């Protein structure tokens, strides 16, 4: 694929999976275009040495440190996207020093907001996919790539998910997610295309599509489903994305007392340092809870 096509796919992923807004996508597009102007033989296939030479040249061009950091970050995320989608077998930015920046806490939703979102689902399928994004903490790429054989058999309370790098993990499913998934499987035939050629592709997937070329629901379509449900539930759609539901899953587990190693396993994180961010989210929310609900905390001074 050309750089242009891969850039477009990457930006679509940022929008669908992470809820990136238009200004963020525009900035990333400019960053990648800058790389293409200076990496003459193509960004997607560039070697580590070529990428490092490009990064070394950022400072010499008089760019501000903030702009340079953002361009490095854009490249890092782009190459990780290519690695995850098996377009490349390596990450040419792996030897670069990580851009120094403050820790940002992930966006999340309250339990009441998640319940309202699920309740606002327009179809059985929509309810099932929201239940899986939240109830199992799936990445949207994992959700749309679930084959039909991944559906739990009667008596099973788990699924086997193929995550990043082709690594499999077991995810446990609670009662609501199992019930929603069973309802979806029972009515799934209606979502299959009528034309035989399209139907053959679509019937492989747990969440088939009527129109997508590969027969499965797209990341963007999942994001649209969430936006519709959020608006119906009275939640600002800009606060809701597949990745936010994954964050809510992890945050609520930590708030409920789950240990980090368990959460790490459920999320499929290779490094527990990635999971530790949820302790900061939980600490902030628990502090607010104590300050607003504990009788002594509310006791007036003097």
TrEMBL record:
GO terms for cellular component: cytoplasm. One of its GO terms (molecular function) is tyrosine-based site-specific recombinase activity. The keyword Coiled coil does not apply. It is found in: Cytoplasm. The active site is at 139, 164, 243, 246, 269, 278 (o-(3'-phospho-dna)-tyrosine intermediate). PROSITE patterns: CB, TYR_RECOMBINASE. InterPro entries: CB (IPR044068), DNA_brk_join_enz (IPR011010), Integrase-like_cat_sf (IPR013762), Integrase_catalytic (IPR002104), Integrase_recombinase_N (IPR010998), Integrase_SAM-like_N (IPR004107), Tyrosine_recombinase_XerC/XerD (IPR023009), Tyrosine_recombinase_XerCD (IPR050090). Residues 104-291 form the Tyr recombinase domain. It comes from the Bacteria. HAMAP family: Recomb_XerC_XerD. Site-specific tyrosine recombinase, which acts by catalyzing the cutting and rejoining of the recombining DNA molecules. The XerC-XerD complex is essential to convert dimers of the bacterial chromosome into monomers to permit their segregation at cell division. It also contributes to the segregational stability of plasmids. This is Tyrosine recombinase XerC. It comes from Candidatus Viadribacter manganicus. The gene is xerC.
């Amino acid at each position: 694929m050309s750089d242009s096509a891969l850039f477009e796919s990457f930006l679509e992923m940022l929008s669908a999976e992470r809820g990136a807004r238009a200004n963020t996508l525009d900035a990333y597009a400019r960053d990648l275009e800058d790389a293409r102007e200076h990496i003459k033989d193509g960004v997607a296939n560039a070697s580590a040495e070529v990428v490092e030479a490009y990064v070394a040249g950022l400072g010499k061009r008089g760019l501000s440190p903030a702009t340079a950091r953002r361009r490095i970050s854009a490249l890092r995320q782009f190459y990780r996207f290519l690695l995850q989608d098996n377009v490349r077998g390596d990450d040419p930015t792996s030897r670069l020093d990580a851009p120094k920046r403050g820790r940002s806490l992930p966006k999340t939703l309250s339990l009441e907001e998640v319940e309202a979102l699920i309740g606002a689902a327009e179809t059985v399928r929509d309810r099932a996919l929201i239940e899986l994004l939240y109830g199992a903490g799936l990445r949207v790429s994992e959700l749309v790539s679930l084959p039909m054989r991944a559906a739990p058999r009667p008596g099973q309370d788990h699924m086997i998910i193929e995550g990043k790098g082709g690594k499999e993990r077991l995810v446990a499913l609670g009662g609501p997610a199992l019930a929603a998934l069973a309802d979806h499987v029972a009515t799934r035939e209606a979502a299959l295309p009528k034309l035989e050629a399209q139907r053959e592709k679509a019937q492989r997937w747990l969440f088939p599509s009527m129109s997508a070329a590969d027969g499965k629901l797209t990341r963007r379509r999942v994001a649209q489903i969430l936006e519709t449900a959020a608006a119906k539930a009275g939640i600002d759609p800009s606060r809701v994305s597949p990745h936010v539901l994954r964050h809510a899953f992890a945050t609520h587990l930590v708030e409920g007392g789950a240990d980090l190693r368990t959460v790490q396993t459920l999320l499929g994180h290779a490094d527990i340092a990635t999971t530790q961010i949820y302790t900061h989210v939980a600490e902030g929310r628990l502090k607010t809870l104590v300050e607003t609900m504990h009788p002594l905390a509310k006791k007036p001074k003097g």
